[in-house]
Write a structure and sequence with these properties.
Shape: globular
CATH superfamily of the largest domain: NADH Oxidase
Number of helices: 11
Number of strands: 8
Structural class: alpha+beta
Strand order of the largest sheet: 1-2-4-3
CATH architecture of the largest domain: 3-Layer(aba) Sandwich
Order of helices and strands: HHEHHEHEHEHHHHEEHEE
Radius of gyration: 19 Å
Length: about 290
């Protein structure tokens, strides 16, 4: 597998866009975006994933689903990613959606997540989605406006969400146990950095890591304060999938392939808790041989 430094650089540089040009995309770009769900990688093929793409007009029924964030950002488009399934479907939803977001970015198209887990029933009603489908967030997108810094609300939102702050490597590992032998592994650090800079709702960074018996595991870190706006902790599971997608994409750009395995009930049992929910793992050997 060949390395692609440009793709890795693009991944690391990706950031949320909150101001857009009003230019519409060409038919070719929209056609490619419509085909994305069929070609991206999944965590579980039994989960059925799809997206609906809309031009944004605040007065339409679909446009109302975006609420105030739609009026503030006024994007030309937004997409609604949704999934049907039971086994880790919310994590799979985040994993697949983030691949779309990164593919958009590689095509010069900016985007921003707008969470809707706290109003999921209303959103599904407005978008005519049946009950079994799950939706956690919208993705607004379009061509970025060059003057991103001109809007006061962007500065305010960055302040309150701490969107430019990231936890240290030590803080991201359970009990702050960042394995010393991995600190010197430049390839691993680059992949970990991609996960560290993944986007998340209000920048909570709800993922934690651990290495046990030469296996790297990821956990969904759930905070009690999230219960205020996310009673079922959907954001933490979804956003952990986003982190996993960033790491997978980074590995591929660096010439390697991560193959995530779902955590079994006895895996990392000693670290399982109501706060840190074990999600998936991969053998570190994946990073030592191209596949």
């Amino acid at each position: 597998m060949q390395t692609n430094p440009v793709l890795y650089k693009n991944l690391i540089s990706r950031h949320s866009i909150r101001r857009y040009k009003h230019d519409l995309l060409g038919e070719k770009d929209l056609s490619i975006i419509n085909k994305f769900p069929k070609v991206i990688e999944s965590l579980d093929s039994k989960n059925q994933f799809n997206v609906k793409i809309y031009e944004y007009h605040p007065e339409t029924i679909a446009g109302r689903a975006l609420g105030g964030f739609g009026r503030i950002m006024d994007p030309p488009y937004f997409l609604a990613p949704f999934i049907t399934g039971n086994f880790h479907s919310l994590t799979d939803l985040g994993f697949r959606t983030q691949q779309l977001v990164l593919d958009l970015w590689n095509r010069g198209i900016g985007s921003c997540y707008v969470g809707c887990a706290h109003k999921q029933n209303r959103v599904k009603q407005l978008l005519d989605l049946v009950d079994e489908k799950k939706i956690i967030s919208f993705v607004v997108f379009g061509l970025p406006d060059e003057n991103q810094s001109l809007r006061l609300y962007q500065k305010i939102s960055q302040y309150f969400t701490r969107s430019k702050n990231r936890l240290s490597y030590e803080e991201l590992f359970l009990d702050h146990r960042f394995p010393e032998f991995l600190m010197k592994d430049n390839l691993f650090i680059k992949i970990l950095e991609a996960g560290r800079f993944a986007p998340s709702a209000t920048n909570t960074q709800p993922w934690r890591f651990d290495v046990h018996k030469n296996q790297f595991a990821i956990f969904a870190h759930q905070k009690s304060i999230a219960n205020i706006y996310d009673l079922e902790q959907g954001y933490s599971l979804h956003d952990t999938g986003i982190c996993m997608a960033n790491m997978s994409k980074a590995a591929r750009a660096l010439g390697k392939a991560i193959h995530w395995r779902w955590v079994t009930t006895d895996f990392h049992k000693q670290n399982s808790s109501k706060i840190n929910i074990p999600i998936a793992y991969f053998p570190l050997g994946d990073l030592r041989s191209a596949k």
